[in-house]
Amino acid sequence: MIVPSLLLGAAATVTEPVAEAAPAHGEGARDISGVLMHHVTDHPFLGLPSKHLVFFVLAALLVILMARLALRSYRAGRVPTGMGAVVDGLVVFIRDEIAEANIGHGDGRRFTPLLCSFFFFILVAALLGLMPFSATSTGNIAVTLALATVSFLAQQWAGISKYGVVHHFGGIVPPGLPGWLLPIMIPVEIISMFTKPFALMIRLFANMLAGHMVITTLLLLVPLTAGLSTLFGISMIPVSLGLSLFIMLLELLVALIQAYIFTLLTAIFIGMYAHPAH
Amino acid sequence: MDPKALAYFAAGIGAGLTIVGGAAGIGRLAAAAMEGIARQPNAAGEIRGAMIVAAGLIEGVTFFSLIVTMILALKT
User: Fold this and answer.
1) Which domains are seen in chain B, by residue range?
2) 3-class DSSP assignment, residue A133
3) CA distances (Å), A50 to each of A123, A211, B38, in order?
4) Between chains, do A207 and B59 touch, taking CB under 8 Å as contact?
5) Helix (H) or strand (E) holding A97
6) pTM for this prediction
7) Which of A163, A123, A133, A130 shows the shortest CA–CA distance to A263?
8) Which residues contact A249 (CB under 8 A, 6 or more apart)?
9) Which helix (H) or strand (E) holds A96?
10) For A227-278, how does the pLDDT look when each residue is reduced to its tens digit (9 = 90+)?
11) Nearest-CA distance from B58 to chain A in Å?
12) CB under 8 Å to A209, separation ≥6 — which residues?
């Protein structure tokens, strides 16, 4: 079931560049990079100003819908089945392995809803981007900036709500340091407070962007080689489709891994501020 | 030389160096993970989990330099 839809996705993306490169731009290899950038950057969609924003809202609505459908099977205290079982398995995994292992037994439960939101949203947004004629909203740096900002605020809130503002910022430097090390350690710790969410942002953005650029580039090999000779172009079609099918399967794995890593690192950083017991 | 030509040249070298660093790091990680699983097959699940996390982190750093390379290649 997945293979035909992936092939449909490959076929859709291969017909789009061919249809656009021919009439709109006119000739050859010069405009291939234009088509590539058109496919991975943001532009108006169906009259709305931003395609990435449309799919961002769509991913959020899908996550809410998934949660609602999952809750339905919990009614009257039954064992959850169907969508409820899937969501249940993932949420229990996030609560036990990610939240409680890294934040601590009491605090882990407080942060589990936030971590579940991150995980499900990033996963659904990435999977949605693999459909034909869609876009990955987390492939836009503004979206990952927003996710990283929420993560940063959660990290600060974890420390401030437990220890108060003064002790939170007082406690970021490990205790028991020799005095001459403080002028180095304090700026380093303050900068690291900002580089951690920055790294989260860049990692997610670059993974999503790079995957789609590779797929689009492999599919654009067909018109590129067809510009040299039609026979060469036609013989590239099975090669290009096969490679991009493989990369799309890899993208499924990358979507899961990136959602897991974002959630895990957020939990680790929250744990570092909630329990600064160096 | 035309600055745009220099930028493309630098982007090419940058992409090559990026993949050297990233693949070397993840290759060593995979080798250590294989050895660990070979020594203790019933720790395979945990080793696999830790390997995937470490590979994701190394790949994140690789992508930082890839972003710099892309900026060089796509600046008009």
Assistant:
1) 27-76 (1.20.20.10)
2) coil
3) 21, 21, 50
4) yes
5) none
6) 0.82
7) A123
8) A6
9) none
10) 888 888 888 899 999 999 999 999 998 889 999 999 999 998 998 888 876 4
11) 10
12) A40, A139
Query: Are A124 and A268 contacting, i.e. CB atoms less than 8 angstroms apart?
Result: no
Nearest to A90 by CA among A78, A105, A103, A80: A80
Q: Count of residues for chain A?
A: 278
B 33-52 residues with CB below 8 A of A? 52
Q: Which amino acid is at A114?
A: L
CA B31 to chain centre: 15
Name the token pair of A38. 């058109």
**CA–CA separation, A259 and B62 (whole Å):** 18
Q: What is the ipTM for the molecules in this complex? A: 0.79
Place of tokens 């040299």: A228
Q: Tell me the C-alpha distance between A199 and A223, whole Å.
A: 36
CB atoms within 10 A of CB A80: 17
CB A2 within 8 A of CB A10: no
B19 to chain A, minimum CA–CA distance in Å?
13
- Give the CA distances from residue B40 to residues B33, B45, B48, B49, in Å, rounded to whole numbers and listed in that order: 11, 10, 12, 15
> Tokens 């990358």 belong to which residue?
A254
Q: Tell me, what's the pLDDT at A3?
A: 45
What would the two tokens of residue B5 be?
């030509």
Q: How far apart are CA A195 and CA A174, in angstroms?
A: 18
Select the residue from B63, B64, B68, B71 to test the A interface by mutation, using most A Cβ atoms within 10 A. B63
User: Looking at residue B4, what DSSP letter applies?
Assistant: H
Residue in A206, A210, A261 closest to B53 by CB? A261
Q: How many CA atoms lie within 13 A of A248 on its CB side?
A: 27
Distance CA A199, CA A148 (A): 9
